[in-house]
Amino acid sequence: MKAFTYARAGSTADAVAADAMKIAGGTNLLDLMKLEVEVPRRLVDINRLPLAAIEPAGGGLRIGAVVRNSDLAADIRVRRDYAVLSKALLAGASGQLRNKATTGGNLCQRTRCGYFTDTAMPCNKREPGSGCQAIGGFNRIHAILGASDACIATYPGDMAVAMSALDAVVEIEGTAGSRSVAVRDFHRLPGNTPERDNVLEADDLITAVTLPAPVPGRHAYRKVRDRSSYAFALVSIAAVVEMDAGRIASASLAFGGLAHKPWHDPAIAEILIGKAPSKALFDKAADVLLAGAQGQGANDFKIPLARRTLHAVLAELTGETA
């Protein structure tokens, strides 16, 4: 690990003006610093800022940026009204890591591509223009949607997938002032700039995430992975589905493990709403999801896996068993 300076921010303004990388839980950043993938000259600790509350806001909830994942998953309001978020958080990492990881930091975690974390290998995310070794290399966990010739890495988190299904909003403070960005727009597809994982500028600070008012329906988070704990998703689905008189009244779905960002396509809900659940309908929804899917060889299995997982989640939430 290379030397760096460290300071504690006394206010949000201090953190924004610090010209330093922000640190809270450090569960991803410190690993990357040890590998010298991240080599910040300065760190500013934001743990003492008043950003650790979960409060009512506009009919929903406002979650401070340094709320720990374990506290968020255990909050009675989250468990009752936003169960998909609690389920997603509990599916991630380990208990010890959830006790340290924060809401803002979780959103900002970087991809877990082995070539990205190996500084001996070319990687466009780490060194733009150096190439993507995963294309034609080991790519079993990599993207089948939204990839580019520059990068096929996937976003590894669970929390943001659930927040995407819930249509949450990220609050950001920066040198240009305050702004809000939908979680669905917060992360970026790689395109020609895979080094940029999200829309944050260098001095920006996430201050909170706001959940909208709860919507009726059943919640599910299904995470398919190589082992039952401490593993990243090969495919994950966060879903909220409401039934009315045997038909799907509303549906919101987001997908993890498939792309450089949590994947949300409103056309999937449009296929489902107003229809009686059936295997044929679920197939149509999967066709929409996977219309642009492209495997890289070792990850080709993700395409049928995503289809089967979507079937299973929709069957669970709609009661379709035929």
Automatic annotation (TrEMBL):
Pfam families: CO_deh_flav_C, FAD_binding_5. SUPFAM superfamilies: CO dehydrogenase flavoprotein C-terminal domain-like (SSF55447), FAD-binding/transporter-associated domain-like (SSF56176). It comes from the Bacteria. One of its GO terms (molecular function) is FAD binding. The keyword Zinc does not apply. Residues 1-216 form the FAD-binding PCMH-type domain. InterPro entries: CO_DH_flav_C, CO_DH_flav_C_dom_sf, Diverse_Substr_Oxidored, FAD-bd_PCMH, FAD-bd_PCMH-like_sf, FAD-bd_PCMH_sub1, FAD-bd_PCMH_sub2, Mopterin_DH_FAD-bd. Keywords: FAD, Flavoprotein. PANTHER family: ALDEHYDE OXIDOREDUCTASE FAD-BINDING SUBUNIT PAOB, XANTHINE DEHYDROGENASE SUBUNIT C-RELATED. This is Molybdopterin dehydrogenase.
